[in-house]
Amino acid sequence: MAATRVVLGMDMGGTNLRLAVVGADGKVHRAINRPLGRDKAPRPVIEEIGGGLDELRAWCHGREFVPVAVSLGAPGIIAREEGTIVFSPNLPGWRDVPLRRIIGERTGLPTGLENDANAAAFGEYWQGGGRGTRHLVMFTLGTGVGGGIISDGRLVRGSRGMAGELGHLTVAPRDGLLCNCGNRGCLEAYASATAIVARLAENWKGDGPSPPTARDAYLLAREGDEECLAIFREAGTYLGTAMANLVNTLNPEVFIIGGGAAEAWEMIVPAAEEEMRSRAIRFTDLASRVALRKAELGDLAGVIGAAGIIWSEGCP
Amino acid sequence: MAATRVVLGMDMGGTNLRLAVVGADGKVHRAINRPLGRDKAPRPVIEEIGGGLDELRAWCHGREFVPVAVSLGAPGIIAREEGTIVFSPNLPGWRDVPLRRIIGERTGLPTGLENDANAAAFGEYWQGGGRGTRHLVMFTLGTGVGGGIISDGRLVRGSRGMAGELGHLTVAPRDGLLCNCGNRGCLEAYASATAIVARLAENWKGDGPSPPTARDAYLLAREGDEECLAIFREAGTYLGTAMANLVNTLNPEVFIIGGGAAEAWEMIVPAAEEEMRSRAIRFTDLASRVALRKAELGDLAGVIGAAGIIWSEGCP
Questions:
Q1: What is the Cα–Cα distance from A136 to A283, expressed in whole angstroms?
Q2: ipTM of model
Q3: What is the pLDDT of residues A151-201, one digit of tens each?
Q4: Cβ-defined contact of A172 to B172 (cutoff 8 Å)
């Protein structure tokens, strides 16, 4: 039986870990979920990561798959060269955790650590909606707004691995809405699922005491609720402002839009596209050549991308 | 006498051509200026370029310098892969001019064509204010606002060589000033020398019938004229908004600021820095680690950078 080299990819979410066995061709041979417990402190989560990796290695063992590396995607501010999670807004207690070293020592395999949104962007570039392009910007519209940038086939990381923080692009410089980060006018304050729900809740007239959910907003908008439609449309317009600036900055071939809010594509994206095309530099047909596409890999973008980065670049 | 390989760099401005003999170490062995005539149509300008290159080759001839390539920096929208000037707002009549092929055929040398702002950014990265860094964003505040981006030591060009159009970043999405490009709220409508002078002219109370110049604005501000200072400060604040978004997008190590307006550093840059540091993503010390530096190469940035791109990447 010929050996097939595989990378073990991980994507660390707020409520569970996703792990997968990924081939050099992007094929996912096996994917598992491991729910995180209530305690999201580093120690129990790292135990869970180790357990998940053990489970995948046991699965590979006896089959033709030989894990050659581990690639970890994690949320928050990642110092990639150091292999450290510097800070993660959604993971209390995680400060300067040297996750790459810990997992590398535990598994004995070369290990990489990447920002989860970067990993997802690389996944879509490699195997998803961005296949065949070289220049891509991805937005993940979820609880927050994540971003990732591929330029000329390479992940744009910046000097400390912190490029692509697109949720905190300023789209309303004066009197913008307050963002979780403390600034005003960030894209995330308009186009995240959290923001959309918060704006809906302001004048919520639904039944019962429970506040509305993103799904409520979506269903109401689909029924033609004007207020809801306006909230989605405004989210789209601000997304378009950010896109126009990214067109001028990076001249991408395609924007990939993923995350839960991408489900409301027809309510958000037309407004985004209109704003982007009217705002991007006028001297050329730059903006009209940019495509907007839905993410294709869903929840697997992060694990596939994390693995793809290793296949593309090797381990750091 | 040992032969020294050199690249002939050119920087094409609105009123004159600058050409130079540049070594692999960045040394400028010879630089010349050739003023352009009144007729800026392609034919006479291309004649002038050819004449300038002939002059430099004659100078090299008999010395130890052997030109191995030509590198052209030109303003406007450059389709780099095709080697074509697509459109140039300041060069009437230039539409889809295949400058690389024309000069390549005329000189018989491998020839590259690059956007002039990209070339200047690469020059500052290679030999100027950005030496020793890998991640840089340059603003040229002149008649317009130009930009150039280096990420991980490589020029960011985007899918059609049109990345880095930073003058047309939207910094005032709602009710912004009208820009030359037809959009509202572009950075160039606030932070170009043209914009600063136009705003000053609105209420100009100076002597005589002639409108104020950028130098008038600078001198008035230096004398403490409140209106002038406010115009510069506002230019700086909008520059800072753009910078904050670029910090979040690209995580650079340094911003380089060049062009005529960089002379008014103390009137523009403190406001830019304050806005940038308060607006960039809050979860980390990203913004506080970014340096702001003055461009060091002056008028030679473009020719040095054009040559440096060839030394770094070879000819396309």
A1: 22
A2: 0.91
A3: 999 999 998 888 999 999 999 988 899 998 889 999 999 999 999 989 888
A4: no
